[in-house]
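Before a colleague's protein record goes any further, I have to sign it off. Alongside the sequence sits a line of tokens, each denoting a local backbone shape. I want your independent view on whether this chain really folds as the tokens say. Where you disagree with what is written, explain briefly why. This is what I was given:
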Amino acid sequence: MVKICCIGAGYVGGPTMAVIALHCPSIEVVVVDISVTRISAWNSDQLPIYEPGLNEVVKQCKGRNLFFSTDIEKHVSEADIIFVSVNTPTKTRGLGAGKAADLTYWESAARMIADVSKSNKIVVEKSTVPVKTAEAIERILTHNSKGIKYQILSNPEFLAEGTAIQDLFKPDRVLIGGRETPDGLKAIQALKDVYAHWVPEDRIITTNLWSAELSKLAANAFLAQRISSVNAMSALCEATGADVSQVSHAVGKDSRIGPKFLNASVGFGGSCFQKDILNLVYICECNGLAEVANYWKQVIKVNDYQKNRFVNRVVSSMFNTVSGKKIGIMGFAFKKDTGDTRETPAIDVCKGLLGDKARLSIYDPQVTADQIQRDLTMNKFDWDHPIHLQPMSPTGVKQVSIAWDAYEASKDAHALCILTEWDEFKTLDYRRIFDNMQKPAFVFDGRNVVNVEMLRDIGFIVYSIGKPLDPWLKNMPAVA
């Protein structure tokens, strides 16, 4: 029986291994992690991450050929294929701080693999890593090999949170990069055989190591660039009276461009986009490509500009102050159908409003009160370190309360800010909400989910990103 071990039981490792176990009943799959709490959650009925469809997949396989364990060394030593899905946070100090990826956890995983291995291994990079990481890992393993052979493969994930299980079941492509040597090609084939249980062969792409590593960074950079492009247009639409939804629709009809990732919003979030672009910037700078680095930096700048612009719009619309005013925050996750808050635009928007002394009442159907408080008090990039290395849970931000539903969050509020596109926000009883709010009542829609005309008929003053401005707002420009 082929044995697979995955180091790291997070958003990538857990779902990916569950789907491999489901489609490959003849393969034993073990997911290991140093976090006892996280492994206990995977072994319980309350999984540590929310992802539609994940629960059902795990239930079918757990205890059959899918296992979760903290006995890392045992399972690593027994495995034929080891996936490494550990954090690669952005460095917060030292060389490359604020841009370069911190490979501390990757290096310690590689050293541990070398220490405990008694047979030949295929080691698969599953985390997003900088180009040439494979070479570094290869050197560590080779210099500590004790006669054991290692083959390093790059197999980047292309999952979107909220649709990860669907993405794993029917991927656009599976990318496997390896050494173009006889042993390297054998290792590529071994991993290809795993995916071939359910992925059509023409969707399994093989490349050299460096192409696979760079393709992941490039894909995320291109997607983030599209969002920043449409968000830059949204500012121009507001200034001119154009409607960004109509512009996006017209642009997306061009088959060379296509309609995806053209929704204007308060900004992109998630664990990958910003981190991967910063990583790309750092790699470009290290290779003397200053102009290329500056080009990609601009994608991040526009994203930050969009979040600042939104906060400025809220404050300027409400008589230039939100001090002491209650603002209902609708959604805190970075996108719908996930409880993930990493780099969510809601953090920066909430911090901006708190900076002007607003009182916030936050509601999100999948994010815990503790997580929201942690995010609002944590330093940038701290979230990407293992939980035991993050700051202890804070006492909480006094101006923030967590609501159990949208109606509680909006009661007696001066304004609502919609920051996540949860479907339930489209169907709320806005008449009831309006009746229980302070007047004038504002809705700032950062995701373009509400029916603007319907809300204006009820009596709301509505700001929707990239849409023609409410007459109220025209005389109160957002200072960006």
In short: The first strand starts at residue 3 and ends at 7. The chain has a mean pLDDT of 92.
